Amino acid sequence: MKETKAFLRRNGLPTGDQYELLTSQKRFQDGAQYRFEVPGIQGPGPMKALLEELDNYGIVIHRVTQTKGIMTLTDNEITEMVQISEKHQVELVLAIGPRATYDTSASVHTIEGQRMGYRLRGQDQIIRAIEEVKRASKLGCKSFLVYDEGSLWILNKAREEGEIPKESKFKISAHCGHGNPCSAKLIEMIGANSFNPVRDIQLQMLGAIREAIDIPIDVHTENPTSSGGFIRHYEVPEMIRVAAPIYLKTGGSVAQNHSWETTDSDAKKRAKQVSLVKRMIETYYPEAICSKKGSIK
After folding, report:
1. SS3 at position 233
2. Quick check: pTM over 0.90?
């Protein structure tokens, strides 16, 4: 194994999982170690309820992610969500709608087919994915959740060539199923602005991924029932220390699945989950630096 490890090192990759759990020296542009993200907010009503409830807690979050897809939203809904995000100074991430579970193929609904994740089938779906981004961009959205490596690559090309706004940002979903430094490096190389590994990623694995890439890592602090339902609040302080810069994806345990139609009441429950994670950080890693409101770049 020595030769293989030396080969990996020569190519800028770690020689194994990082059991030493070294403290990451990497940071967001504003010098912060962590930010909060609340996923699964599917429309303007729950988004407004979430952010107003967080104001009551006195807690700042930095991202709100819609997961059902741009194609499930009207123009007015997208515009309203953009306006809410601007008012509360949070990044709005809209999911690209076409995905395997929305396609006419039955494969993804079989036990073996589920391994394909949410990846797209056929070039027409790639075209539709680009159209999704173009539509939402015209309505003011700048950040997008991507489920397919090929669509990420071509969207990056579209960004480079001015087919979509150059300020567009792409967040790769956990549903792509990546969980190692080599995959993370590839995703960074083909245009991702942040990387979401598999939901049950362990700390030593996170440390190794952090060695390999510079973009933020998005980590679930808890999960819907459909993806395990585990809650990792006590691990959050170490997640921050080892994997900074990191987005803490919080509130997922309120949902039953990835595309859960979050109600206003559910949104308030998600806000409570953020407050519980914030308490863990303040108790066990109070020196950790969080991005301030309005400092997102």
Report:
1. helix
2. yes
